């Protein structure tokens, strides 16, 4: 076949001449020797050894059929059935017309009749065959995934489209397959093992689509697409594939998950059909009790709703449809609770959809990379509100705003936070920055460097959601924080569960050792409040005092303090 490097450097292609007659070998060598590097073999058995030795650089085989030890037919069958060797074109050398048809049926690319009395014809046929197979090799290299030998996404979509053209009356299902925790397999067992898993899945998919008249591809990493005629028993498809990797590694949980868009809408673009199946597959990403999910009307409505929110976000920001609510935090270290600060929380008052829960749009914006815009909106609104309260009441109510890992990694983050405070005439200590615990575990060096710079400038840093992330106690001693925000899951049952209360006490001891303030979130009942006060908690927030409210409603707490 020859490699791309050989072509660019104009190196001679290797051609193997296999013929038991010495004079024929010499004659062919003389005819083609000026243009090609010629290898010689007098029988099929020796030829096979040479082929295997030079299979990466061999461009063509000229094969006689009638030979001792191993004849041309037997060698041709071996080549045809070997995945690697079958890429090398074979031209059969024969004087029998009947042999020409048989050899072509067995995979030969062409034939050259004996005797060799037309050298220019021989060279032309050799040149044409090599050129044709080179072109096919280049196409094949772009058409197939290099690891699994399945179609790549681009060619898969074309073949799936052609399938629709040839079978317009078939109801079709679009499948997306994902391997659970595949990155852990690579980390634990090495990339070679991961590739082995991919190849096992691919081999099973090849059998499946061949049996059921479909088409399959590897989309990316551990994600596969396949397109099959509709079945009412998708569990059988799942079991068929799962079986191929069941014994590769020891794990009681399911190895794969399937997202299925059944009976696809043919009016949709092919890519869009598989986007729907992918959406279904991702819906059970962290659910190890379910291994199949279907794209249905409910999921379609949810997706359409999400797309609408995304498309209307910029308009909502411009029209200030997003409202910043404030939940007060109370210092409980004294005899009576005292307003200490507030947390800024976002709401969306949509002109036609009404009040939209942050649980609906925040995860959506996080997934689509739009959360930065929303965070900055809140930063500016909160800083302006602190200034309004100070101008109106003569007191400063510090407000904490959420800062994500993505925010901190932005090159202008520190500059922008400083500018927001300065433009509103605030001190850094009036403006608290909440960073989730999990943010410290990702790009921790960069996060810590930025947070240290902010603290040196005077900002107070709160670790949000403490207890839900993965930071070790050893790591906690090195983190630059001023406040631990105790996640509400620890507070929820502390008044009815002794173990939960003991954990809260333990966290209080840790905070005292680190000399940081503790804020307990989600306090709803008087029993929780009393237990937290008994445990020496510093600050609490929750429905016990107030739900998140508009700024004008929070003012009643400011007036009360006055």
Characterize the largest beta sheet: strand count, sense, and whether it forms a barrel. 8 strands, mixed, barrel
Structural class of the secondary structure composition?
alpha/beta
**Shape from CA axes?**
elongated
Can you tell me the residue ranges where pLDDT is under 50 for at least 5 consecutive residues? Answer: 1-10
- The whole-angstrom Rg is 35 Å
Q: Might you state the CATH topology name of the largest domain? A: TIM Barrel
Percentage of β-strand residues: 15-25%
Report on this model:
With 562 residues, this protein is an alpha/beta fold. It folds into three domains: 4-143, 3-Layer(aba) Sandwich (Rossmann fold); 153-295, Reverse transcriptase/Diguanylate cyclase domain (Alpha-Beta Plaits); 315-545, EAL domain (TIM Barrel, Alpha-Beta Barrel), CATH 3.20.20.450. It has 23 helices and 19 strands. Strands 11-12-14-15-16-17-18-19 form an eight-stranded mixed β-barrel, surrounded by four helices. Helix 18 (444-457) links the parallel strand 15 (431-436) and strand 16. The chain starts with a helix and ends with a helix. Mean pLDDT is 87; it is low at 1-10.
